[in-house]
Structures are given as C-alpha cells and as structure tokens.
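User: Hi! Is it possible to get a structure for several chains at once, not just one? Here's what I have:
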Amino acid sequence: MRVVTLGEMMIRLMPKGNLRIEQAEEFEAYYGGDESIVAASLARFGAESRYVTKLPDNPLGRNAVRKLRAQGVDTSFIAVGGERMGLNFYENGASMRPSYVLYDRKHSAMAEATPDDFDFDGIFRDADWFHVAGITPAISDNAAQTVKVAMQTAKKYGAKVSVDLNYRSKLWSPEKAQSVMIPLMQYVDVCIGNEEDAEKVLGFRTENTDVNKAALDVEGYRKTFRAMKEKFGFSYIGSTLRQSYSASDNGWSALLYDGKEFYHTSTYDIRLVDRGGGGASFAAGMIYGILSGFGLAKTGEFAVAASALKQTVRGDFNLTDIGEVYSLMSGNTSGRVQR
Amino acid sequence: MRVVTLGEMMIRLMPKGNLRIEQAEEFEAYYGGDESIVAASLARFGAESRYVTKLPDNPLGRNAVRKLRAQGVDTSFIAVGGERMGLNFYENGASMRPSYVLYDRKHSAMAEATPDDFDFDGIFRDADWFHVAGITPAISDNAAQTVKVAMQTAKKYGAKVSVDLNYRSKLWSPEKAQSVMIPLMQYVDVCIGNEEDAEKVLGFRTENTDVNKAALDVEGYRKTFRAMKEKFGFSYIGSTLRQSYSASDNGWSALLYDGKEFYHTSTYDIRLVDRGGGGASFAAGMIYGILSGFGLAKTGEFAVAASALKQTVRGDFNLTDIGEVYSLMSGNTSGRVQR
Amino acid sequence: MRVVTLGEMMIRLMPKGNLRIEQAEEFEAYYGGDESIVAASLARFGAESRYVTKLPDNPLGRNAVRKLRAQGVDTSFIAVGGERMGLNFYENGASMRPSYVLYDRKHSAMAEATPDDFDFDGIFRDADWFHVAGITPAISDNAAQTVKVAMQTAKKYGAKVSVDLNYRSKLWSPEKAQSVMIPLMQYVDVCIGNEEDAEKVLGFRTENTDVNKAALDVEGYRKTFRAMKEKFGFSYIGSTLRQSYSASDNGWSALLYDGKEFYHTSTYDIRLVDRGGGGASFAAGMIYGILSGFGLAKTGEFAVAASALKQTVRGDFNLTDIGEVYSLMSGNTSGRVQR
Amino acid sequence: MRVVTLGEMMIRLMPKGNLRIEQAEEFEAYYGGDESIVAASLARFGAESRYVTKLPDNPLGRNAVRKLRAQGVDTSFIAVGGERMGLNFYENGASMRPSYVLYDRKHSAMAEATPDDFDFDGIFRDADWFHVAGITPAISDNAAQTVKVAMQTAKKYGAKVSVDLNYRSKLWSPEKAQSVMIPLMQYVDVCIGNEEDAEKVLGFRTENTDVNKAALDVEGYRKTFRAMKEKFGFSYIGSTLRQSYSASDNGWSALLYDGKEFYHTSTYDIRLVDRGGGGASFAAGMIYGILSGFGLAKTGEFAVAASALKQTVRGDFNLTDIGEVYSLMSGNTSGRVQR
Amino acid sequence: MRVVTLGEMMIRLMPKGNLRIEQAEEFEAYYGGDESIVAASLARFGAESRYVTKLPDNPLGRNAVRKLRAQGVDTSFIAVGGERMGLNFYENGASMRPSYVLYDRKHSAMAEATPDDFDFDGIFRDADWFHVAGITPAISDNAAQTVKVAMQTAKKYGAKVSVDLNYRSKLWSPEKAQSVMIPLMQYVDVCIGNEEDAEKVLGFRTENTDVNKAALDVEGYRKTFRAMKEKFGFSYIGSTLRQSYSASDNGWSALLYDGKEFYHTSTYDIRLVDRGGGGASFAAGMIYGILSGFGLAKTGEFAVAASALKQTVRGDFNLTDIGEVYSLMSGNTSGRVQR
Amino acid sequence: MRVVTLGEMMIRLMPKGNLRIEQAEEFEAYYGGDESIVAASLARFGAESRYVTKLPDNPLGRNAVRKLRAQGVDTSFIAVGGERMGLNFYENGASMRPSYVLYDRKHSAMAEATPDDFDFDGIFRDADWFHVAGITPAISDNAAQTVKVAMQTAKKYGAKVSVDLNYRSKLWSPEKAQSVMIPLMQYVDVCIGNEEDAEKVLGFRTENTDVNKAALDVEGYRKTFRAMKEKFGFSYIGSTLRQSYSASDNGWSALLYDGKEFYHTSTYDIRLVDRGGGGASFAAGMIYGILSGFGLAKTGEFAVAASALKQTVRGDFNLTDIGEVYSLMSGNTSGRVQR
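Assistant: Yes, the chains can be modeled jointly so their relative placement is included. Here is the combined structure:
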C-alpha cells in the first residue's frame, strides 16, 4: 500500500491554551498542512506514504522534514529551495468565539514551485494512490499546474487519485476554484468534501443545509452526491458532517457513497481539543479503508473514528495509532482509563 | 463620544490553568479592575475613553499605565503616588469547585487617594459620560468621597452618570453600602446591577430569586426595576442574569428597562474561559449602546454579546473588537473557523 | 483519630494540558499513590495520619517525604533504601480518547521491601485505623507479605482495618489477586471497591453492570454487597459509582452499606480536571466519616463530595479543605465566586 | 523634543532560552524593528516620539500598535494595509555558537508601501528630528523611495536628520547599498554606523579592523570618521564598538566625533541577555544627548550606557528608564541590589 | 541542637529568567524571609529548628506553613491571623543591571503582631539558640517589641542569641535602626553583619571600604570587629564579604572573629543563579558550626561554602544538603558530574 | 560511509533552567544515550548511520524511534520488547554546584536484551564501521555479551571498530570493567577515552593528572597513549581534555595519536549550556574525520569543534550541521550574528 500525497506544509503558530493572538507573548509551533497530515496518518497506520512538497533550505524547512521523518513518511522526493515556508497564526476559539486563522503563506516555496521542481516519474512509478487537497491548487497558478501534472503522472502509472475539495475562501473565489478544479475531476476516483466544498468548488448546491448550523439534512447530501457521481463518475464520494454546536463542542459523522449505497456513520460528540486536521484525518482513514478493502461501512466507521480522535489531540498530525481507532470503532467511548 | 471612568486598578495573580493557589509555583499576572475594563472596552469600540485612578510610582504602577495605553485609553489624568497597587490572588474554579478570590487590596494608592489628588475640572470638562462601579466607594471612605466629588463634577459639566452597583461582601456590609450608595443615586442616570446588588446596595428585595441558582425569575426583576425607577428616577436600568450551572458553564443574558419597556436579551450558554470582567464588559456595552442611540433592544443585545465574548477570553480586559460583537449578535454562534 | 496507611508512592509524569506522551517535551511531576492520598486527605481534615512506605535515598525519595510533610503527614516511620521510586507516565485523555497509564514501577523500593523493613509495633501502637489499597499487595509478593503483617499487627493493637480493593489489571490477574486478597479479608472491617473490584479481587460477579458504561444498576450492587457482607462480615462496604460519559465528563456517586441499610449518595456531574485520586479521596472521606461517627448517609455524602472535589484539582492529592467539602455537601454547587 | 522615526516593524520569534530553532516547540514573540526601538527609547526618556510605518489590518498589525502605544509612542500616523508583517526567527547563540537570524520579511506591508501611503506634511510639520536606519531603504525600492521623500520633507520643515547605516548583507549588496544610500547623505546631519557599515554602505574602508575580532583599533576609526566628515559634512558621527568575545560576552563602547573632537566612551563588558536592539538603543541615546545639549562626552556616555543596559534585557525594546541610565553612567556597575 | 528563629515570611514574586517586572506576564512564587531561610537550612543540616511568625488565615499563609513543614521545620508555634502576607516583587538583574526589589510588605500579619500573639515560654523552654535578623524589628514598632520580648525570654531559658544586622534602607533610617537595635545588643552573643550594617545599625564606620565595590579591605573590617567586641562583648562576630563584580558574578568570602582570632575564609567566585538568601544561609552555617563546636576556621569555611551553594540555587531556601557543603569545603569546586 | 552504533537509549528528565530536582514541578524530557548521539551526529554530517538497541513496545519506546528517525538514523534493526526504557534524572549544576545524575536505568529493555534479539548479520553486512561506548557493556552481563557478539560480527564483515571507554562509576567497578573490557580490545581499531577511563577501564595510570582539576599535563597523556598503542595496537587513540573550571565554564580540547604523531587541538573555553553529549559528539567527529580521510590534525580539529558546539546546545543530540563545524574550525568564534 503505497500512497503519495502532495501539498504545502505550513507552521501553525498558536497561542497557549485559549489565549488570543493579541495576548500571545509566545506561540506553540505545529508543523502541518492538509496532505502532510494524510501522509503522516497513513504512515502511522502502516502504509508506505510519500509526501511531496518544496521546502526552503533553512532551519524551518529542515525541521519540517524531521517532523515527517519522525512519523515514518518518505521525504526523499521533497524539493529544496524557494523563499519561505507558509505560516499561519491560529487562535483557538472557545464557546461562541470562533477559532481564527491568519494566513501568512503567500510566496512560499511550494506556492512558487513549478512542475519542473519534481521528479514525478520517480515519485509515482511505484505508487498505488495519489491524494491532494483543493487547498494546494488554490495557493497559486503554479501550484495548480503542479497538481495537474501530478494527477496526470499518477494516472499514467495506474494509481488511484483522490481529492479533498476543501474550499478556502481566503485563498480563492468560487469562480476561480471551479475554473481550476472542474477540469481536474477527470483524473479523480475518490472525491471528498462537504456540501460547502461541493458548491463552491464544483458548483453543486445542496438544499436545506447550512455549514454554520448544527442540524443536518442528510437527504440533501444524498442528492448532491448522486449528481456528483453522475457528472464526474467518481468511484467513491465522502463527506464529513460537522455539527458546530460551538467552538468547544462539535458533532462529527460522515456520509459515504460508492455509487450504489450510502452509508451514514456513527456520530461522535467531541469536546474539541483541536479541530484542525479533522478533515485530513478523515481523508486518510477513507483512503486506508478503501485500499484495505474494508467495504463502505467499515471504511466510513474507520475514517470517522480516526478523525474524531484527531480532534482530541493538539497539533496538526493525527497522533493516534491504528489500535486506538479500532478500539473506538468497537464502541469504547467511555474514556475509562485502562490500568 | 467621550467617556470617563474612575476606579482602582488591580493586578490579578492567577495560577496556571485550573491549579489551586496552593499548587501555584507561578502566577499569571493580569491587570484589571472594573472601571478600567469599561474604559478599555470603550476604547476598543472606538470611543474616546479616559481612565482616572491613582497608581504608585513603581514598575507595577507604570506597567498598569502601559496596559491601558496599549488599549488606547487616555491615561493623562492618572495620579501618581501612594503606597501600593491593589492585588488579588484568583483561583479559577472548575465544575462544582467555585473560583476563589483573595483580596490584598487594602492601603492601595487609590484607596488612600483623596479628591484633591485629581483635577476633576480637567477630567470632565469635555466628557459626555462618567461611569463608576460600586466597588470603588467600597474600598475606603476616601474613595467614597472621591466618587462623590467626581459625580458632582461630572454633572456640573453635563455628563451622564452610570453606576454598576457591584456589591462586594468582602469589602463592606449592606448597611455600610447603603449608607454610602443611596445618597449618590441622585447623580445617577443609568443604574446597572443584579438583584443581589439591588438588595445589598439599594435595599430592594427581589422575590423568588437566588443568585446561587441556575433558574431565573425574570418577573421578579421587573418588579424590582420598577421600584428602583420610581425611587431614583434612573433613565435606564440594566442587569445581567447569570445562571451558574457550575464554575465551568454559565447561562448569560440581561434584562434592560428604560422606564417604559423591558427587554430580556438572548441567552448565551458559555463554556467559561474566564468569567472575570463579564459584568464590566456588559456595562461598557450598555454605555456604548446608549451613547450610539441603539435603542433598548439593540443596546441589550450588543451589551450581552460583548460581555459573553469576554468570558471566552482569559484576563480582565474584554479583548474583542466591535466586529466580533456584531457577528455574534447576528447569530453567528457556531464557532466555525473562517478560512 | 490516628490513622495509618501503607503503600507505594509514585511520581506521576504527565504531559502539559491534554498533550499525548508522544508530544511531551516536558512532563509535570505529581507525587502520589493511593494510600498516600488517603493519608494526605485525612491530615488535611484534621486527623493525625501516618504514612508508611519505603523510599530510596535520593532526591526523588527525599522529595516525596517533603510532599507528605507539607500536608502534615507523619513520615517518621518511612523506611529509607532500595533501588528506585515507582514512576508512571500518565496521559490525560479528552472526550472519547481515554487517559492512558504507562507504569514503570517495578523494582521499586516498596516493591522490594519486606516486613522487616518496618517497625510495625511502633507504627501501630497508638493507631485507631489502618488502611491499605489492593494495589499494594499487587506490586510484589514481598509487598503482599508486608501488607499481611501490617494487618495482623494493626489488629493486635485494636485498630480497625479498611481496604480499597482497587483491582489493577496491569499488575496482576484475577486468579492471583484472589489468592492473595481473599485470605486477607479476615482482618478487614471496612471494604471499599466497585463491582469490577468485587469480581476480580473477591470473586463476586455483579449482574447487569459494565464499568465501561455510563448507566448504573444500583440493584445489582446491593446484591453483591449483601453477598460480601455474608461471606466476610465487613462492618461497612462502600463503592464509588463512576458513570464514564467520556474522558472529559463523568457522573460520580457512591453506594454504602452498613450491613443493615443501603445509602446511595447524591450524584455529581463532573467536568474532570484530573480523575486520578478520586477513589482514594473517597476512601479517605469514608474513613473520616466513620471515625467521626457521622452515620451512613452523612458519611456517604461527605466522602462523595470530597472525592468529587478532588477530580476538579490537578495532581494526585486531594487539595481541598474540610470547609469546602461541607460547603459542597450543603448544596453549594453553582461554582459562584464569593467576593 | 519631537522626534519622528520611520521603518519596518517585525515580530521576532525566538525559541526559549538558548534552544535552537530546530528544537523549538514554541517561540517567544517580541515586537521590534530598528526605528521602533529608537522611538520607544525616546518616549521612555521623555521625548515626544512618533513612529511611522505601514502595518497590515490584522491582529498582528494591531498588536504592534498596542506595543508602541504602551511605550508612549505616537502611532497616529501609521498607515494600515498591505499583506503581512515582517517576521524573523531568531536563535540565541551561546559561547562560540553565533546567534542566527532567519528573515521572513519580504512582501511586508512596509516593504510594499509607497510614499503616497504617508501624510508626510502632517508627520513632519512639528518635528525637530527625523531618524531612519539603513535597513529600511534596503527592504525594497519602494521603501528606499519612501525614505527619500521622508528625508526631504523633514528637511523642508527644518528637522535634523540622522541615519544609522546598519548594513544587512541578507538584504542587499554593497553596490546596491551605496547606490541608494550615498545620494541620501546630502540630507543627513548625524551619521551612525560601525566600520563595516561605513565600508559597505558608504565605501570607506577602515584599516586594521575586523568586526569579527575582539580587538579594537580606534585610530583606524578616527581616520574613517574624518573622511566621512570631509565628504558628507555630517555634524556628528558615532559608532558603537562591539568586541565580540563570544556569543555570550561582548565588550561595548562607542566613538563619537563632532568634526572637531573625538570621544571614546567607557567600555562595558556585558554578559549578554539579548544583544538585539543594542545599536538602535545607542542611536536613541545619541539623539537624546544631542537634542538635550549634553555635549559630546556626556552624549557618548549616555548613549553607550543606555545601549549596554538594553543588552541585559530580553526583547527588542530598551525597557530601561532614564534614571537607570544615569545611575550606570555615574559608575554604579556593581549590580548590587538596592533594598 | 534546638534553634528558634523568628521573623516575617514573604512571597517573592519573580519574573521568569532575567525578564524585567515590566515584561512579566507571569511570576514565579518563592516563599522566604531571612529567618525562615535560617530555620530551613538548620533543619536540612539535621538540627531541630522552630520558626516563629504570624501568618494570615488564607491559602497563602497556609502554603507558607506547608513550605516550612516540607523542610522539616517545626511550625507548631506559628500564630494565625492578621491581614496579609508580606510580598515583594523581585527582578533578577544581569551584568551591570542591578537586581531590583519592590517591597509590598506593609500591614503584614507579622508587622502588626504583638508579643501577646506568641507563647514565648513554650517557644523557648527547650531552646538552645535564638536567631533573628535586623529586618524583623525594622518592619514595625510592634515587631521591634516582639523581638525584644523574644530575646529576653530566650535569655531567661539560657539560649544563645544571634542577630544578623541586615540593614534595609527601604525599611528604616540609620537613626531609627540604631535607636532600636543598640539597646537589643545586650542580649546578643553572636553578631553577623557586613560593614554597611555595622555602620547603619550600630554606628561603627569602617574605613576604606565601599560595599558597592569589588575590592576588599579586610584590615578595615578587623578594626570594626574589635570595636564591636569591645563595646558589646559579643562572643562571635561574622561578616560575609561580597565582591560585587556585576549582577551576574560575585566574589564571596567571610571574616569571623571570636574575640581572639580572626579568620578570613576561602573566596568563591560565583556565577550567580540567585543571590537572594546568601546572607541568611551564611548565618545558618555559622550557627550550625558554633553549636557543633567546629572551631572558628571550620565554622567559617562551613558557613561560606553553604551560603555560596545557596547562590547557585533559584529561590530563597538553601536547598542543599550537608554532604554537598562538606564536599565543597573539601575543595571539590570543579562542578564535574559524578556518574 | 555506513556506520553502525549500538547501545542503550535513555530519557533524560531535567528540571527547567538551573532548578534542582527537589524544586522540579516539571521536567524537560530529552532522548539520548551515548551511541545514539554518535548515530545522530553522523547522520547529520551526511553519513548513513544505523542505530541498534532494544526498546519497549510503549509510547516512550516508539517516541525514541521517532527522535532517531527525525535525525535521519536508520532504525530498522531496533528490537522491540522488554520491560522499560532507561531513565535518568539530571540536575544542571551551576558555578561550584556540580551537575547530578540519578540513574534509573536498571531492568531496561536493552540491559535485558541478549545477542539473540538482534540480526547481527543483517546489521553488519554492509557496514564500514562499528562504534560502541564502554557504558553499554557496563549495564548488564547480557549487554556485555551483546557487545562482544556485535564486535565479532563487525570484524567478520570487515568493519572498523571504535570504542569510547567512558567509565561510569555508578554502573561498575574498575575490576569488573577491566575484566569485561580488556578482552574486547582485540577487536578495537580506534580507542577513545580520557585518562580516568584509561586507568579504570584498561588499567593505565596517567601520572600528574587529575580529572577534577582544571590544569592539563598533556605529556602524561602522551605516555599513556604510547602504552595503550603498544599493548593493544590501536590505529588511533583520542581523548578529550576537559578543564573543569566550574559547572558553568569548561575548557575543551583533545589529544589524538595515530601511533606516529600526536596532535593537541585548539582549546575552546565554553560557557556551558549543556555539557551532556560532549564526549559522544567528539567520538562522532573523530569517526567522521577518519572515514573522510581528514588526517590527524583536521580530524582532531573537526571532532573538538563539533563537540564544543554540542555543549552550547541543550539536550543530548548534537544539533549542529557540518557547515557550523567548519565555520568554527576556521576560527569563527566571535559569536557575531550573521544578518
């Protein structure tokens, strides 16, 4: 099971506890970025995972490599050079105060990288799967071009391709997103994204649903999934369903579709430690489930349990082991200490 | 919009997280005090706010000035001298363990200041509003005299006067409070205080209500407000309504009265980060709403939203911006990250 | 009121906040261990408490003594020597992620101590009560022997004996536990333990109950208690009833039995700060109540309130004072600040 | 005494203690930048100081304003807008391991600002002095143009102009530096810079001197100063003389020249807490001395004492008060506690 | 060996590392006070030591007791009551920046205590030695009276009396100090104090010496000691000799006199971790040496080694064990790790 | 360049800053152990390095692997299993207070491992060099046997063998050390160790030298080296020469011998940040130099510069890059910031 992911790695600078950026005399530093989280998750589950990006030749870039290596990710195809690493300042919300992200990621090494920076034949020659998030083509036109070439090369070598649509309004407009992303869908086998992503990135409007609300209309999602399948022929479609009760507590489940069946997973009510990385951890779980031949329901339960656990861990990477995911899937939600 | 507030500034020494004072090998230091919170809030909302106090000529006193200046508060009328700053050691409660305050504020520069320490004509010449809390006259007879002279001078220059009754049982008895506060009511246009304050400070007993309980009897409040209006002729009366489910979770709303209408605001269920400063932030919101001509309902919603947000922020000052208050007022309570 | 407790003291090394051990670049260090928590609680309530253990002659061992002395515990009978202190690495869970304990306690001074290390006549000559947990005989055969001699000497001097069964699956099997513990029951007057302990340690199976579930079947407990009373003739039996909603929130109550009456206490819903030490704090409360002649109901309410408060405090020792316990018992659960 | 400074403000992200960036799981955040340090120093000494820059409209930019306001700096002419704040990651060296700066300051609001962003007439109408460092024109051509217009406007209103040459090899080459800076010298009255700056920025080679060595050849400096005076007609020239024994210990003195006399100040041997900001603090001291009419020797002693004290303080701003500077000037170097 | 000490206990609030009070968003809290340091030192050396003070009935006061108990000090004669604990804010200097103390100790429980608060007969009945510092009578007239009664009672029961003159210019003037202290000298057997103390407190001027200078004139001290002996008949006189090279590095030795011989100890050059508590640790060492019959030279070497070690430890108490003192006395100054 | 190292990995638990273990409410955690430091250094210099050990199957063991992987060390031959990781509590000394190590490493997975746990043929088949320290055979007889088999297998595949004698008095006696180590010397090509190691481990007494003293007698070393060469036929012998001025400052140089020439390197005076890992970093530098064909002088300068830099970095691993070593070798000792 050999999975390649490609994207931008960022350092998330986060004030301690629930402090605001304004109060921060110091910041915790977490290394992450959507596809690097997927790569780290898969490596922890036992897959061979390879992460592709471009990182600057400075202590921060070298540290990013160390963080990936520590998780067992293959970093040998990471390009070195460029100006800077992407950063973001992230304020943990609480109760009705939302979390806040201040991106400082422009002009990053990865945003300014071009397809020529990467040895895509070497990268994909032995790959079974390629995964990328919609954030990566959003960071620059160069990056969009890189993603396109990567997808084409992946297909050339017979790898499955998955995309996590992940719309970011601070990076591009719906119009721009659609103009870039829709042409890429021809290469995509597995599409992940919630109803906001489906609308902004692919143009499918889900009725009666509002990502800012806690209630769910699963039926609306089903209609959207069917339309997506019809238009793009995806093998699998998956969406996490986040019920945002507040910045402190969320409901968390997922809907999966394989073109025939729908499966709505169990719902976890999460006292959030850090919601960041939840979506990427779900994508990792879904890829792992499909590659392991789990079937739709077990894939969904695995992916939603893995990603729920992520949100109880501070930092970007999903620092859970596969045994913990299975334990949660088996109904062990009491949080009782084993001793 | 030019608002003057007067009071004592204190340093709140707080163990990390939920540690007890007994466990504290170190303390976080927050500079606050009721009226300084009001001044800082108003400055952040865009008003010109001036804070009046007396601070000792030492690094702590100078630091207090820096904290105010950082918020944009006019500190040019702060008197310098006296013996010490007021301190308090504050232990954050959790669940059914209440928070605990150990005052160490006696003999402070402000407690020992007299009206002669302040240039009240300069202070109020260009002022539209004067605000003070009932804590300030409670700290010493000198301070009570200072408050009285301040109110009189404020009226002389045509400013509106608001008071937040804020009864503190560790500072004075109901008898003493009433003997000092009732004679001051003649200068007061806007009176803020919950039913405990109304009873202990002004002698109005609200029936069927208990500040230690989570349930609310809004009707009892209405009766008390009508009686207060009748006796003292206040233009506006406001009270926050805190439902103390536990030291970790509170309900939060407010009741306002303009002599004609009552308005009971929306209720927020708050996972508390730091309940300190909630009342003062409400007072700042109410002053801002009235001075902005918001009308009773919008004033109430603004003030309760601002003060709910405060309680999701650690420290005394309400480090929110007006846009965040409007966003919460418009129903954005999901805590969903915008990115 | 002179109480002796005997056991092993450990240092609990805990990552900051909710971090995983994997993320920990630093650990908080808490000194604890079941019977030392009981001793410290009783000393804080005003009893004369004496803790007996063996500690190595190094800075960690000396520090353990200092932590006990600070609580007012008599440490004059602690043996000095041996190889090391027991340690554990403890990861605070959150939401559906359970807390995790990694014991590193083998070969500790106490595990390798023998009865000859202790002057049991001196220890018990003036004692009214002896308490030990089932963890202590589990750590080694030597320790089991030491507990046996301690119980015999305690009885020789007329002290009551209590045991908190406290089954630890990482230390021994049910078979081993029963072979050691059942013969000790002849010395025991007061037996504390939940239904899992009763089954694993004494062989009583409680029907329809699952310690991993949030729901309670109090009737099942009653049957088990009656059977225990019948077989071993305990004067009192007590069990805490933890409803594990998640790693963040628990329900907490207790059932007590004096051979005639059952008493099911009030239930507290606790937002957990640190669940560690809850059981030991309950045992301390129960001992204090019985020695104070509180009667069954007041004893139960005292013990459950004391131990609920513990779980709002970080660290092992129950750093509450008796006034706080009484205040909570009297219904003061609002967490409202007194100021 | 009304001084204007103009430049870029940055956040310095610094690992705790002496940790390397590679080890940093968290960073302390200090707000600084050469001319903002000068402005803050002068405000603390009692001058009216105004700082001009452009800052982005986000929490970091607003925080920078708060840090300046806290020091009493006039921030009313700061332009708001642009993309980002400049950052740098700064590793504190130790012993023979040098400190390390990783600039991440490109594309900052100030680098992309143009003269049109600033109301220079308003800024300089009431100014006595204008100060800028050679770092500012180095950050971009726009910034160089902004500095030029600022200098011209300053002269129009009769202000003295000082420049701290401050060559930064990571920002520009000597050729580029000279092409920009030499034409600006016509506006400059007071020129500050060490022999490396003189060579790289203005083309004056000082013989027998090496900034990497601990030894000093003051005579070489005198020659260079005379040549600079001759060519550009500066009223005053000053240079700090740093003897870099190691990253932990430095010698610190200064040479001043008024076209007639040379003055070599006392030398302080500093156990460095944070060498950052030493040069800017010297510039502030020199401006303060000249504006106060101290004469050459007292100006030099004041400036070198102030800047030595800075290097015993962590962070960018020189958080000393004028009394501390006078005390050190008077020979009080024993570090003895006054109590 | 049973030693009683009496004085005020304070909490020292200290910014992290070398930060200034102005920068402190948090303070480390150390419990200390001159005579409590002596008591803790003696307890650690194995003496029975009893500390007498008055502490308020609040969590800070109770914590002070716990800190003493942890060191093995007998706290059973501590009076409980009064208004507050004394505090001080302490800024660690560095290099030529001196450390700074901001006392906030007025109105403390001990300052307002009277002799009637203490059971002096019980305190001294079994005592061999009584020690007090000149700081204690300086805090209030009541405290001066308490010290006098304590000395008289100590003499009544045959205890030796030592005093550490310890002049504090922020507490009283030389005139006041002499009026209080000189009459107490009739009770004193052992007098400790440097030449500044001798002058300010007892009126003996030592020539050619300046406490702010690094150089020593031991001969001047000898003259002063002879004069003190002559006037007051002390059995022993001792003075530490601190050479204040800077706030970071000090020389440290001592001069002792038994009326016949002088002994000037070895000198330690100390890289200071925390100079606080050095003097008190010397006093403890001198008392221990005399009571142990060490003779003049060994007493001096013991006391100076113990107090040098203190200054390598952060916090007030001298957290060294007697074995470490002996090891340093034997010439083991290399700081080489034993492993 | 393919190097294998074998040994035990430990977690060093270290109080913050200079605090004593007694004061530590929290510990920093550093993963290290002599041969793992060598492996990490070599990987950072660009060699392929493989570390062999046995680690327990728990979060600490898995974390140790992550720390090695992050440095680029090949961890694929690490055995998993056993009881626990070795720990040590390490107190940073200061000035004349020595650092202190409390080992808690008995019964570790590596101490109880046997040669059968390792696939030595796989490990050494492609190896050029094998390195081990004298600490490893000291931890248990099993470990000594494992080292012997490893050396034999290394020789079988033609690898050079180096040993760092590293005598640890807390682990074994000189007699035991010699009985184990001398028979191993037949396999050793490169021997590293100071004169204490030579005496305690191999029985060579160096005259006129004392490791606890700051002075050096290089001639004595030369004699010892010649005798070692004669007896065991080593190709290279190296010794670091640490001059322990105090726990804060050390001199650091090295003497190398290739059987023909002696080379005494430059001496660095180090303000210590963390002396731990200095010796292992020297060994890594020496191995790197020899394998790179640097010649004796350059090898010595490289190794001593690398290991001097280590001592300016907190933690066990030598987190320097090869460019920094070359820069220091070239005389860049001023610690001047490059910017």
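Chain A touches chain D through 28 residues (CB under 8 Å). Residues 35-51+116-329 of chain A form a domain with the UDP-N-acetylmuramoyl-L-alanine:D-glutamate ligase fold (CATH 3.40.1190.20).

User: Great, thank you!
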